[in-house]
TrEMBL record:
The active site is at 483 (tele-phosphohistidine intermediate), 858 (proton donor). Residues 20-387 form the Pyruvate phosphate dikinase AMP/ATP-binding domain. The keyword Metal-binding applies. It is an enzyme of class 2 (transferase). GO terms for molecular function: ATP binding; kinase activity; metal ion binding; pyruvate, phosphate dikinase activity. Keywords: ATP-binding, Kinase, Magnesium, Metal-binding, Nucleotide-binding, Pyruvate, Transferase. It comes from Aureibaculum marinum. The lineage of its organism: Bacteria, Pseudomonadati, Bacteroidota, Flavobacteriia, Flavobacteriales. This is Pyruvate, phosphate dikinase. It catalyses: pyruvate + phosphate + ATP = phosphoenolpyruvate + AMP + diphosphate + H(+). Belongs to the PEP-utilizing enzyme family. Catalyzes the reversible phosphorylation of pyruvate and phosphate. Coiled coil: none annotated. Its cofactor is Mg(2+). Residues 546-896 form the PEP-utilising enzyme C-terminal domain.
Length: 898
């Protein structure tokens, strides 16, 4: 089998179809080379080798690929007309990771590999640029030291050990910028860096380029199992056995003087989706300078540059002189780049995110990939590409990441509240949305408050977890393509970057803007769409779901055959879900209706009553409240199906556990405090999730089932009188035997007949059941003989199939995920292998005795895209999920059907 794939000079061994083997980056490089894009030549070591490395170790892998790697290096040498490790005509290379999906900043990269004390002299000689050669060398030691040799800060208060050495030298020399270092300074730095490596690792910095190469390749393989990558993988549900490829490529330099440069560009706006070529570049710089946000990058296009200057409040004269666009500064290069971006977007038929370098007037395209984008941009781009005829309707629907729609469904700042708010500073609108929260300065403290805003000078991949927890991210440095900006957009998280006016002091934990001091814990609000930084807490409003969003959703519905219902417990939720396109209610958890203050009292009286008579009296109080809710819900759904579930949770959830409340209750019920206390302890259970809950309640206290049935049917009758026909679906929870179902069904039907007789009118209704105990799934054929419908409660079914307590899984699941014992959280993503079997078997067996049995799902999985796909494959009639996930499920249902 082939383990090393070459590319360059308009030919390649691989192509874009080999993403799993070559990684996204490697497949793209091969493809680009094939279609005539000038990529620096190189080769890709496959993802399979990463897996082999994990199994067999370094020695075995080197043996396997040594010959191929040597041949591939020779190929690069020929194309670049230079030699690896040669002092007089050196070839330098980069080594990068590349998994099958893009994981920005997650994995490590080494640039300038091949330099040593001899080669640096040759490079200086060849380029006639001694400064550049030594600068590259010190950058190489710095990167290689960090990535391969583990030279990282020792604690979060420390800075990078190499940066520390540089800071010292700057102080000593009384200079501020890296560019002010003299050649001698750079030489001193190289010496000091190597010394630091020797001191900390006990080994000399490797001088043989081949040793350097193998070290870097193994470091990339190792980084696949590094903390950052593992966290990112778990967050996205990517399995560990994908592995990463390694891309080795000839270096080209953007820091060879003023006719060199480097940049990042997008074929469309990644924030808004607007069809406008845009991006940023720096003259005389290397790629990491743009991403690290140390210098302020300039815009690629003239129009982009003008827009940027307006936001940054820079006058046109100053802009044109100090920050000219690439279009103005290097028109020929710009035209060439413009041509390639067009070619690449048409070739890949999606918005591209490209990196390029200009080396002494020659343009090289380093990489292109489908660009990360916000939810809003994703929808607009899909719609635009469709209208432009570049993609089909199916492709437009498929191009939307269902989970990303979430961003569009959440609130934005209330324009009225915004008017009276005080904007204290402005940064770049790096990732849209609105965020309000309390200031934290360290990523690992993001969970200190319920809502936090992470405020950093700049972010690094180590901050990922905290960025995910924070409501918004604010950085003082960095452009639109800085780490913070790219990662935040990927997460759909509000981010304002590059707010230069902020003075952040990590030690004092303060943020100073214009002389005003903010502290950790102070409220701050960010508008990621404008870049505004606002003092205090700002109210938010619901988003607008018309326009392109509505059109894409309409398109999705055209393809899907499975319905999407919602889980809603109140008329308000039902209305929200309707506006999101829910086609009915799949689950009303009636117990949630009792949590309000005035209701919980009546509920408690019911629970504490010792006699049936006492219980019935308390239930009488509850009846009108429930009926009123059901009426509201039925009305909101306007004749669409509504499934109402009878009381499910363990009763002790409702009893008062605090002394004061117990006293109140005792007084109100005219019983002693002791009586209340003893009842509370009587209801205490060792394992409430498997205890006295579900239909077990209705069976022991049939009067509860009677009251609930009455409330549901009276509500339906009341609506019928007002001209709204509803067919309530009454659902019995947590059954495991047919007899349990029969018991409750009898109570329901008897009560129904009573109600119909009293009212002299009837409504149609169904009696069905949850399938959430494995035994119920196994006996589905018998149950379906009685039940009108099934709804899979995959929360409980997962709990009981795995034997993981829903309430306690949080203690060990993170460890399971970290160690790879589970690939994903089964409470989030339906476990097809195990739980899924029960779902399929339950559906099949159910339909074997009742051919047209209506089957749905109402566990959390009903709103999770891959689970929705599974439900579609299982042949369910509908999925049901929380209101805000309805559009996501609609889209996932359409994608499953395409
Ligand atoms: C379930 O178990 O999946 C379900 C929907 O019910 P609950 O979460 O209320 O137990
Ligand atoms: Mg359940």
């Amino acid at each position: 089998k082939t383990r090393v794939y070459k590319f360059g000079n308009k030919v390649a061994d691989g192509d874009s179809t080999m993403r799993n083997l070559l990684g996204g980056k490697g497949a793209n490089l091969a493809e680009m080379s094939k279609i005539g894009i000038p990529v620096p030549p190189g080769f890709t070591i496959t993802t399979e080798v990463c897996t082999e490395y994990n199994e067999l170790g370094r020695e075995a892998v080197v043996q396997m690929i040594k010959g191929d790697v040597e041949a591939a290096i020779e190929n690069i040498e020929q194309i670049m007309n230079a030699k690896f490790g040669d002092k007089d005509n050196p070839l330098l290379i980069s080594v990068r990771s590349g998994a099958r999906v893009s994981m920005p900043g997650m994995m490590d990269t080494v640039l300038n590999l091949g330099l040593n004390d001899d080669v640096v002299l040759g490079l200086a000689e060849k380029t006639k640029n001694e400064r550049f050669a030594w600068d590259s060398y010190r950058r190489f030691i710095q990167m290689y030291g960090g990535v391969v040799l583990g030279m990282k800060p020792e604690s979060k208060e420390d800075i990078d050990p190499f940066e520390e050495i540089m800071e010292h030298l700057k102080e000593k020399r009384d200079i501020e910028l890296d560019t002010e270092f003299s050649i001698q300074d750079l030489k001193d730095l190289v010496y000091d860096f190597k010394d630091a490596v020797k001191k900390r690792t006990g080994h000399d910095f490797p001088t043989d380029p081949w040793d350097q190469l193998w070290g870097a390749v193994m470091a990339v393989f190792n980084s696949w199992n590094g903390d950052r990558a593992v966290y990112y993988r778990n967050m996205n549900g990517y399995p560990a056995d994908w592995g990463t490829a390694v891309n080795v490529q000839a270096m080209v330099y953007g820091n060879m003087g003023d006719n060199s440069g480097t940049g990042v560009c997008f074929t469309r706006d990644a924030g808004t989706g607007e069809n406008m070529f845009n991006g940023e570049y720096l003259i005389n710089a290397q790629g990491e300078d743009v991403v690290a946000g140390v210098r302020t990058p300039q815009q690629i296009t003239k129009i982009g540059s003008k827009r940027w200057a307006e936001l940054a409040k820079i006058e046109e004269d100053e802009r044109a002189e100090k920050y000219p666009s690439l279009e103005e500064l290097m028109p020929a290069i710009f035209n060439e780049l413009n041509e390639y971006q067009d070619k690449l977007e048409k070739h890949y038929r999606d918005m591209q995110d490209m990196e390029f370098t200009i080396q002494e007037g020659k343009l090289w395209i380093l990489q292109t990939r489908n660009g990360k984008r916000t939810g809003a941009a994703m929808v607009k781009i899909a719609k635009d590409l469709l209208d432009e005829g570049l993609i089909s309707e199916e492709e437009a629907v498929m191009s939307i990441e269902p989970n990303k729609l979430d961003e569009l469904l959440h609130p934005v700042f209330d324009p009225k509240a915004l008017k009276s708010s005080n904007v204290i500073a402005q940064g770049l609108p790096a990732s849209p949305g609105a965020a309000t929260g309390k200031i934290v300065f360290f990523a690992d403290e993001a969970d200190k408050y319920k809502s936090s805003i992470l405020v950093r000078i700049e972010t690094s991949p180590e901050d990922l977890e905290g960025m995910n927890i924070a409501k918004g991210i604010l950085t003082a440095r960095g452009g639109m393509t800085s780490h913070a900006a790219v990662v935040a957009r990927g997460m759909g998280k509000c981010c304002v970057s590059g707010a230069g006016a902020l003075k952040i002091d990590y030690k004092k934990r303060t943020l100073v803007v214009d002389g005003k001091e903010f502290h950790e814990g102070d409220w701050l609000s960010l508008n990621g769409s404008t870049g505004n930084i606002i003092e205090g807490k700002v109210a938010t409003v619901e988003p607008d779901l018309s326009g392109e969003f509505a059109e894409i959703m309409k398109l999705a519905d055209k393809f899907s055959s499975m319905q999407v219902r919602t889980n809603a417990d109140s008329p308000k939720d039902a209305k929200v879900a309707r506006s999101f396109g829910a086609q009915g209610i799949g689950l009303t958890r009636t117990e949630h209706m009792f949590f309000e203050v005035d209701r919980i009292k009546a509920m408690r009286e019911m629970i504490l009553a010792d006699t049936v008579k006492g219980r019935k009296e308390a239930l009488k109080e509850l009846l009108p409240m429930q009926r009123e809710d059901f009426e509201g819900i039925f009305e909101a759904m306007q004749g669409l199906p509504v499934t109402v579930r009878l009381l499910d949770p363990p009763l002790h959830e409702f009893v008062p556990h605090q002394l004061a409340t117990q006293k109140d209750l005792a007084e109100e019920m005219h019983i002693t405090l002791e009586a209340v206390k003893s009842k509370v302890s009587e209801l205490e259970e060792f394992n409430p999730m498997l205890g006295h809950r579900g239909c077990r309640l209705g069976i022991t206290y049939p009067e509860i089932t009677e009251m609930q049935t009455r409330a549901i049917l009276e509500a339906a009758l009341n609506l019928k009188e007002r001209g709204i026909e509803t067919i309530p679906e009454i659902m019995i929870p947590l059954i495991g035997t047919v007899a349990e179902f029969e018991n409750q069904e009898a109570v329901i039907r008897a009560t129904a007949n009573e109600v119909f007789e009293e009212r002299g009118a009837t409504v149609k209704y169904l009696v069905g059941t949850m399938i959430e105990i494995p035994r119920a799934a196994l006996l589905a054929d018998k149950i379906a003989e009685k039940a009108d419908f099934f709804s899979f409660g995959t929360n409980d079914l997962t709990q009981m199939t795995f034997g993981y307590s829903r309430d306690d899984a949080g203690k060990f699941l993170p460890i399971y995920l970290k160690r790879g014992i589970l690939k994903v959280d089964p409470f989030e993503v339906l476990d097809r292998d195990g739980v899924g079997q029960l779902v399929q078997l339950g559906t099949q067996r159910g339909r074997s005795t009742k051919e047209n049995l209506k089957v749905g799902i109402c566990g959390e999985h009903g709103g999770e895209p891959s689970s929705v796909e599974f439900c579609y494959e299982t042949g369910m009639n509908y999925v049901s999920c929380s209101p805000y996930r309805v559009p996501i499920a609609r889209l996932a249902a359409a994608q499953a059907a395409i």
